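Problem 12. The chain below contains 279 residues. Write out its predicted structure in token notation.
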Amino acid sequence: MKISMKLTAVALAAGLLAGCAGPNKQADDNYLLCAIAGGLVGGGLAAAAADTSGAAVGGAVVGAALSLLLCPTEEAEAAPVEAAPVCAEVPPAGALLDAQGCAFDSDSDGVVDGVDMCANTPAGVTVDRVGCPLDTDKDGVADFEDMCPGTPLGTIVDKTGCPLAGEKILSLTGVNFAFDKAVLTAEAQDVLEEAVTLLKNTDSMIEVRVEGHTDSIGSDAYNKTLSQKRAEAVVAYLVSRGVKSNSLMAVGMGEASPVANNNTDAGRAANRRVDFVVQ
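Solution.
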């Protein structure tokens, strides 16, 4: 019977210590309970082996000590948590940075300070890659302030982006008419579409003189009258395409202002033109 008790005590001690020292020991956060259980089993084992109370006490102490050594005394380490990035985006080269090392955009135009060449752009204004407002017609007046968008390149404009008085904003050759008449050809109407686009963008801001020019064939008086009729035909076509009539004035210039030599076919063709001049 004593042999059975001894074997039982040994088995219990081995099982307890194996459980404390095994792979799941980090899941047991109550090492005090483990020590007490170790002491009880250790004491029982010693008592069974020696049949004395002193042996039981000594066995309990040894069992508790072994349990404390083998059982975990610290909680399992928490898995490391990656810190969230401080800046939403990596600052570009040359950007001004705040205290956290992040680039800031004081005018909220999408181009960070330090890269932005046009600070304090008004809200909602479309900018280029360096933060400056777009100037599509390159007249020196930004699109959001330009009252006459689409001004031809090289035209002198005022602070609102509109051409100054006397500026020629367009000169069209190939605006041909039926022989000795003021009737536009189909080809001429196609050429005039360029003027339609431009004038619709400016007809609420400026008035334009539509000047008809001829070559030198024929008398001065005849050419003057013919050019007036042809200028009026151009105005009528532009109005039919949606340009405001009160922004246009037809003027026949005749042969008085040639831009080329009337002694050649090419020169005469260049002189037969329609100019659009700001009033």
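Discussion. The first strand starts at residue 168 and ends at 173. Students who got a different answer should revisit the alignment rule from Section 12.3.
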